[in-house]
Amino acid sequence: MPLLVVPYMGEKGARRCREEEVSWIDLSGNAHLSTDSFLIHVEGKPNQFKQKGRPANPFAPKSSRISRFLLAHPNQHFRQKEIATRAVVGRGWTSKVVRRLEEKKLVRRDEEGRVEVPDPALLLDAWHEKYDFSKHRVIKGTVASKDSLDLTKRLARAFESANVEYAATGLAAAWLLTRFARFRIAAFYFSRQPEEDLKREIGLREEPKGANVWLIVPNDEGVFFENSMREGVRHVHPVQVYLDLKGHPERSEEAAGSIRKEYLNWKKNGG
Question: Residue 73: CB partners within 8 Å, gap ≥ 6?
């Protein structure tokens, strides 16, 4: 029976092993051993092989602006100065993050020293592995509506009228981009805590159970970068939609696959 042994098995690695029907154990105490005779599955044990101290995380909220920018402009080369300007990050910070991405072989420099992404899919996978939607502040509630798409458009109009910075994400944004499937939850990023007057105007009743509206205050404003407008609704970039679906219920995994196929399939698009 093939058996893979690693120091720590991440989410992506475990999924790949499951797809290939390969059993594994890690030295941190997690395991998935499956045969015709028995099944042993252990999860939840923390990584015992993290680097000492506090290593730089290129996918921390502010740092991830750089990866978002590079993935939004694949197959292009950029000077570090331009990356810093367009990602709205300091030059020193940009230098540290790019160096960390280089160490992980997620970016490289051409002969002129410009930064490029040799494999955008690999960079996206690395970010997805680290991404934690729960780090955002999510206000969950209910707004009376019979149709989720109509609700999404109605809320977008209200937000535009209130002159607040917003952008749809999750299943609502996935539907706007791919028409993948009907959805129940309309999720929107808000640049600041929604005011009570606005909540009353849209008829929001805060109640997590059965919520059909999520108002999300992000841990970094970078989520709004590279956004677009479709059918009167502003939405985040497909990269951000793909990441956020990791923290959504319903058919989020299938929706993420649809987003990836249509918008983040760099091989299909000649990348």
Answer: none
User: What values do phi and psi take at 24, rounded to 5?
Assistant: -150, 160
Report helix angle 148-161 to 170-178, nearest 10: 100
| β-sheet bridge partners, residue 139 | 215
What are residue 25's DSSP bridge partners? 5, 31
Q: In Å, what is the CA distance from 146 to each residue of 101, 151, 170, 212?
A: 46, 8, 19, 11
Percent of the chain with pLDDT over 70: 96
Query: If we measure between CA atoms, which residue out of 247, 65, 68, 264 comes closest to residue 170?
Result: 247
- Determine the Cα–Cα distance for residues 270 and 83; give it in Å rounded to an integer: 23
Sign of CA dihedral 89, 91, 95, 96: negative
User: What is the distance between the alpha carbons of residues 181 and 255, in angstroms, rounded to a whole number?
Assistant: 8
Contacts (Cβ under 8 Å, ≥6 apart) of 268: 261
What token pair was written down for 32? 């998935």
In this predicted structure, what is the pLDDT of residue 54? 44
Give tens-digit pLDDT for 1-39: 889 999 999 888 888 898 888 999 999 999 999 988 899
Q: Are 230 and 220 in contact (CB under 8 A)?
A: no
Structure token pair of residue 70: 């590079």
